[in-house]
């Protein structure tokens, strides 16, 4: 079949099977000492002494089909006319296979041929007859044999074993043509050797699964990169090329510098600080510094106003911020920020409860001028529908604050019923321990039916010397308070001491006091720590004795 066989004739010859997909063309010459030259397929047409029309009709051809069976024709050039044709497969004869089901096959893995071809003279029983191919072998030329161009880089399966170039075991690790290790993928035109999803050295292991890549940054977890988590998890670089940077990388979760800022009570990095209390979260949006918001009202202050500015796009007050001092950190939604506006004082006992904001007629309230006065000893004696009454707790000798637990104040019904009411704490402090709410339903006929709660907490004096009381303390767990609350000394919104456990305090009404201590640490980019919403009840149905103070409000939208 070629000139490298022992006993081959002279000259250079051979039968060639094209590489690539089926059908694989067969061309060239074989030599027989008995028959002489034998051409295969198209080669026959190129030689006048070999050409002719095949018994099948048409020009000669020969190939290997997808089942690795030879098809078509070879010809014994020394036999005249068309009697020299050799059928490689009975399928291609005019008569078909019949009882002589013959063919020649090739195994590209073992390189061995098998089966029979046939030559017979037309109309006679003569000819060469059966031709045995069992002694034929493919050349043992391997994929990596050094010919030009190198067979390991030509994109062809030259040895017909199903593997092309570097994927062929004959070429594997054959540098400089094929990489011997994954990280040398540049030899075959690849980049990012350990993160390109290719088995670049054809050893069965891809990227980080290949031991060659163990030291490649793409195969080292983010927190184990140079410098450890303190550096690699905070440097703004995707060191391991997995698409996640720093703390967004699962490798860094719980490592130094990577506290998750919104999953309390978990201390992700184990440093003892949780979420916004951890310095890692100091710039996180969810850890915005606590701020105050007053909706639909104004903010007044005597000496000045100072605090954390609201997040971008937010404001501390809907309308005006007015003070006798300066404004620092606070802002008005409408830009109404008034400084150095002169004295703005509150009604207190030492001046007869009279100020620029109006007259708080304490004596009249306590004497029953504005509503029936009922003396109480605890909050359970306050009616759910307030009934226009003044509920008086005389705590001049108290040692603990008056406790106001969770309550819902209901609207009154009927033309003569009143939904407003006033709690007066005299000479003692008030502690609000639960949420305070109004009836969820509105009123349809009489504004006097509308629930409207007021609180006055008075201090005890000896002459002009303060002794006790006058403060309001709100427990940290309270999230909702309703009513217009006046405290002669201070209002304290309360805190657990942690931004994590603190909740937002929502107030529907107004705070009036000499000092308001905004203690909540709750923080969100769009939610304030304390939200005070003026709901207008102190104007449309003021609690008993608040009528004059309500008149001092320039408009329905004002709040303290």
Question: What labels describe this entry?
Answer:
560 residues, mainly beta, six-stranded antiparallel β-sheet, 32 strands
- Mean of residue pLDDT? 82
Radius of gyration: 49 Å
Helix/strand structural class:
mainly beta
Tally of helical segments: 4
Measured between the Cα atoms of the first and last residue, the distance is 108 Å
Shape: rod-shaped
| Range of strand content | 25-35%
Number of strands: 32
Largest sheet: 9 strands, mixed
Query: How much helical structure, as a percent, in the residues?
Result: under 10%
Low-confidence stretches: 144-149, 551-560
Task: Explain what you see.
Among the domains are: 15-132, no CATH class; 292-338, no CATH class; 350-543, no CATH class. Helices cover 3% and strands 26% of the residues. The protein has helices at residues 229-232, 362-367, 537-540, 547-551; strands at 15-17, 24-32, 36-40, 62-64, 70-76, 85-87, 104-107, 112-119, 129-132, 292-295, 299-301, 304-306, 320-323, 326-328, 336-338, 354-355, 358-359, 373-375, 390-394, 402-404, 407-409, 420-426, 430-432, 436-438, 452-462, 465-469, 471-474, 480-487, 490-492, 505-513, 516-517, 530-533. The strands form 8 sheets. Strands 10, 18, 19, 22, 25, 26, 28, 30 and 32 form a 9-stranded mixed beta sheet that branches. Strands 1, 2, 3, 4, 5 and 6 form a 6-stranded antiparallel beta sheet that branches. The longest helix is centred in the middle third of the chain and has 6 residues, at 362-367.
